[in-house]
Amino acid sequence: MPLTQPDGSDWPRGTMARPGEALRREKVLPNIEGLYAGSKPEVTALILSHAHLDHYGLAHYVHNDIPVFGSRGTLAMLRASKLFVPDAVIPENLRELPTSEAKSLAAFSVQGIPVDHAAPDSRALLVEADGQRLLYSGDLRAHGRQPQLFKDLPAAAGPIDVLILEGTTVGQAQGSHGFTNEIDVEHRLAELLKANGSGLAVVIASGQNIDRAISVYQAALATGRELVIDPYQAYVLMMLKDIRPDAPQFNSPSVRVKFVSNHVAKLKAAGLWSLACKMSRAGKVSAEQLAANPGGFVFLARSSGATVALIRYLARTTQPIIVWSQWRDYLNRNGPVPKYCKEQGIEPLVIHSGGHAHPEDLADLAERLHPGMVVPIHTEAAAQFARFIPNVRVVADGETLNIGEP
Ligand SMILES: [Zn+2]
Question: 356 CA distance to ligand 1 centroid (A)?
Answer without folding.
Answer: 8
